[in-house]
Amino acid sequence: MNKLYPLKFKPILKDKIWGGSKLKLFLNKDYSPLPNCGESWEISGVEGNISIVSDGFLKGNNLQELIEVYMGDLVGDKIYENFGTEFPLLIKFIDANDILSIQVHPDNELSRKRHQAYGKTEMWYIIQADENAELISGFNKKTNKEEYIENLEKNTLKSILNFEKVKSGNVFFIPAGRVHAIGPGILLAEIQQTSDITYRIYDWNRKDANGKSRKLHTELALDAIDFDFHKNYRTQYNLTKNISTKLVACNYFTTNILNIDNKLNRDLNGIDSFTIYMCLEGEVKLKYDENEESAVINKGETILVPAIYSNIDLMPVETSKLLEIYID
Are residues 156 and 284 in the same domain? Predict the structure, then answer.
């Protein structure tokens, strides 16, 4: 069997009613034929949208097939035991040219009960934001089901939602149950559990190209929503050059950020997991074994480093920024 290597995949592009052109402008995805390209699924194990390898001797194989063959060598032994051939994360870039629907995702327990699926906890890293761009994360005060329903029926839901002005570098952790929406003018990276279950609560009275409203999931959402109020919805962190800075650590994924202008060695011996790098700025060479073999990722590219590689040298060609994702 040929030796595994860091894998790049063909992005799965999604046309969205709220999509725009920033994936082309800022992340070099200029091959998109879609007029409103709202999402680029970089690595996906979602049924019907399984990522396909774009280079090397495994080109043309899909992610599920690779896990069947390489098992723990690719994803990590513990992850393979827990998830089998289903890849546990969905990695995306999202461009919101218009506001998304207000929505909520169920947790694992509710998703299993209703959909025989995983829940969806996710996080956002803001890559670029227009002036005064904002998003919705949670409520602006402690509320309850009755007050929420009353505001929904009166079309005043906005009055109890927490709006956050955003800029490049902001991070938001969105656990299952938190009401949220991305606003217009925002380009972000999203890391989430492998789940495509979304309960749409409110869609701004928007119509599609055929004049129809999109389906709402008002009743389903009620049992999924966390009505608690939090003082801080934005994740605080201090970015230090040439070290790995932790952004989010939860049961489903860990995400770090690296801002590098010098060679950085990443010793990943302590984790039994694949590692994903999303290049947000610059260009980085990854040296992944003792034979000096390497791969290169440029701005807008994502690469999956198999679990068998626990020591990686990151060598920036220029000052570069990466997200580093694994399951701890």
Answer: no
